[in-house]
Write a structure and sequence with these properties.
The complex is a heterotrimer of chains A (77), B (258) and C (363). With 77 residues, chain A is of the alpha+beta class. Helices cover 13% and strands 29% of the residues of chain A. Chain A has helices at 16-20, 53-57; strands at 3-6, 26-32, 38-42, 63-68. Classes of the chains: A alpha+beta (77), B alpha/beta (258), C alpha/beta (363).
């Protein structure tokens, strides 16, 4: 089941990932980090397909994409 | 994490675990990561020196895990030339903004390219001087408001934005010159391929390589992250067409030169 | 080795190679073009790097990149070209990079002329670029001395990890004289440059060679660190030559470079006429031999210190500071490419011998 891990210390709440997620399952937190930013999180983890597009687009490399079980490589990167 | 958990994507080794000073949404961070990924994939981090410019990316030496020199404004190609000529066995790249490369440093980049220095330049074009607070740059768009073109860039007064990729591709010396962008995932993937190609050409000692990357500057454009990404698509790409402008594979040297 | 008749510019080039420096970047400018032409032929023979850049601005910055490898590198230029290099020189000083820069001076300011002059004294010794930094400045007066100082300069640059400048006027570059290169070149031991140079972050943390210190405490530290180097230079590197200095002398001439050599001729001729005059010739213009000059000036019989330069009295200010009014310091000079003859020098000396209280008038 693929999913993402957002490093709250690195995320600056720029919302690029929210815009690009093909499943449109990302949203911004209600609370803010110690640096004063909202951070990204998965609103519906079950629908994440592990495509990595959010992580590829993140200007701050704040997103790791992890999975267990088989995943189809959707595109070479 | 249970036993067959795998990481599909994470920070490349050459990108330091440091929170950057870049503004939220600024795509410098994406470009830094692409360079880091290419350094990792080519296995050259330990044999590479970067030359930092003056501008927002002056602190790139904090973010990439290679040795670095820091150049006076506009002079990175000259430092890179001096270094590479003495250490042709090392990978040398410059990372420069539009003020650094296309304004004060235009002489240096043109001549480094014309000599065919075996270095790689990552040229980040965000149409404004970022670090100093949003002044007009050589690549500022016609009508674009900046702190030194408050009424919008007047092309009758300051001319048109300079197309560096086209300018340098007019040089006869065989080079690799491509313009890419990073405002959508598809563009990022293509940008990475161009950056990898540039560093590969250097690793093969083949030619001078420059990748111009259209980039955003939400703060000084006065736009949100999303508006900035869209502005690159709607405003910059039409004026700065993406694509490969010069490749040593297809370069033909004019008869007179032989 | 046997003496060879060589042009100054070419002797300087060969001296660099003999000192193990086979990397040279340059830009054409009279009166030092022959250095580049010589190196274009010679460096390929010794596997060195030669490149003519697109401007002296570019060349100065190529030096920064080249010096960062830890290898020896140098350039030569002339007054206007040296002005264009000032920014990169300031950066190299701030980044603690060893480099050698030779200024074969011509008349200035501006495009000036192409004939010999000594009008870049301030620029060389007071720091032509921005920030708290100095250059170790050496001034040869013969082509053999230019060779010797050139070979010494690379060691000094590495000892202090600071740019070293050699300034000679156009004659030092253009004259031909017999010179001798040492059989083999010895240098005191220094720590390896690999301790600081850019060699690739293999098996060590990445290194950054920079002069940016946004934290004022760190920039303050960096500037006082440079200051300590210059204080050490003052303790260890002052070089000068005394010529025919005797207790009975009434006049002490202070002059450097080719001008000092012309004064020596004048002094020799006056000696035959029974007039005894001594010459103090600074070889390091920074660190300036102030104490030594003061000591000579304060000797009982000295009535006048006479500074003679091919400029409008630049070194004179440092002599004034050294003597601090203990004795009158007077000046004679011509510049713009005019080179005072021994007779002209003798004429000025005799005026002071006859009436010591006279002020010397400009030409």
């Amino acid at each position: 089941m693929p999913g993402i891990k957002v490093d709250k210390n690195h995320c600056k709440g720029c919302e690029t990932c929210v815009k690009v997620c093909p499943q449109q399952i990302l949203t911004m937190s209600k609370d803010i980090t110690v640096r004063g930013y909202f951070y990204a999180l998965m609103a519906d983890p079950s629908r994440c397909i592990g495509c990595r597009i959010c992580a590829i687009s993140c200007p701050d490399s704040a997103i790791d994409v992890v999975t267990n079980g088989t995943v189809f490589e959707l595109f070479p990167y | 994490m249970n036993e067959d958990a795998r990481t599909l994507f994470s920070r490349p080794e050459s990108l330091n675990e440091v929170v950057t000073h870049y503004c939220p949404g600024c795509t410098h961070g994406v470009i830094h990561r692409l360079v880091a990924e290419v350094l990792d994939e080519l296995g050259v981090r330990e044999n590479t020196v970067g030359v930092a410019p003056v501008g927002c990316s002056v602190f790139i030496y904090k973010y990439l895990g290679t040795d670095f020199l820091e150049a006076p404004h506009g002079r990175a190609p000259a430092l890179a030339t001096g270094f590479k000529r003495l250490r042709p066995d090392m990978m040398v790249f410059t990372y420069q903004g539009d003020g650094d490369l296309a304004s004060i440093g235009m002489g240096e980049i043109v001549h480094a390219a014309n000599r065919g220095e075996k270095i790689t330049t990552i040229f980040v074009n965000n149409a404004v001087y970022g670090m100093t607070g949003g002044q007009m740059a050589p690549t500022t768009m016609p009508g674009q408001v900046t702190t030194t073109s408050p009424g919008g860039r007047n092309v009758n007064d300051t001319g048109y934005p300079i197309r560096v990729a086209e300018l340098l591709s007019a040089l006869v010396t065989p080079n690799y010159i491509e313009r890419v962008a990073v405002h959508t995932p598809q563009h990022i993937i293509k940008a990475k391929q161009a950056i990898r190609k540039a560093f590969t050409y250097q690793k093969e000692g083949r030619c001078f390589s420059l990748v111009e990357v259209l980039s955003t500057c939400p703060t000084n454009w006065g736009k949100t992250t999303e508006e900035s990404l869209d502005w690159v698509e709607s405003r910059m790409v039409p004026y700065f067409p993406l694509g490969c402008y010069k490749d040593p594979e297809t370069a033909e040297v004019p008869d007179g030169a032989v | 080795m046997a003496k060879i008749l060589m042009k100054g510019n070419e002797a300087i080039a060969e001296a660099a190679i003999k000192a193990g420096c086979v990397n040279y970047f340059c830009y054409p400018i009279t009166p030092q073009n022959e250095v580049g032409e010589y190196m274009a032929r010679r460096l390929p023979e010794v596997g060195g790097a030669f490149l003519q850049g697109e401007s002296e601005v570019a060349v100065g910055n190529m030096l920064f990149g080249a010096a960062s490898t830890g290898q020896r590198v140098f350039t030569t230029s002339s007054s206007p070209g040296i002005s264009l290099m000032q920014e990169s020189i300031s950066y190299m000083a701030g980044a603690h990079l060893p480099v050698v820069i030779v200024n074969i001076m011509r008349g200035g300011p501006g495009l000036g002329g192409i004939l010999p002059a000594q009008s870049d004294y301030f620029q060389a010794t007071k720091g032509g670029g921005h920030g708290d930094y100095r250059l170790l400045v050496l001034a040869p007066s013969t082509i053999q001395e230019a060779v010797d100082l050139m070979m010494l300069s690379f060691h000094l640059a590495e000892k202090y990890r600071n740019p070293v400048m050699i300034i000679g006027d156009g004659m030092i570059g253009q004259m031909m004289e017999p010179v001798e290169f040492p059989e083999h070149h010895e240098e005191p031991e220094l720590p390896s440059n690999d301790l600081w140079a850019i060699t690739g972050a293999k098996g060590r943390e990445p290194r950054v060679i920079k002069s940016l210190f946004l934290d004022p405490k760190l920039l303050d530290d960096n500037s006082w660190n440079l200051y300590d180097k210059y204080a050490r230079m003052e303790r260890e590197e002052i070089r000068f030559e005394s010529y025919r200095i005797k207790p009975k002398n009434k006049i002490l001439i202070v002059s450097y470079g080719t001008m000092a050599r012309i004064c020596q001729t004048a002094i020799d001729e006056l000696e035959k006429d029974g007039v005894s005059v001594g010459l103090f010739r600074p070889i390091t213009l920074f660190p300036f031999p102030s104490k030594q000059i003061a000591k000579e000036a304060k000797k009982k019989n000295i009535e006048n210190v006479l500074v003679i330069e091919m400029s409008t009295a630049q070194m004179k200010e440092d002599v004034d500071l050294a003597v601090l009014g203990a004795k009158p310091v007077k000046f004679y000079g011509e510049t713009g490419g005019l080179v005072p003859s021994p007779d002209a020098v003798k004429e000025q000396i005799m005026k002071l011998i006859k009436n010591p209280n006279d002020e010397l008038k400009r030409r």
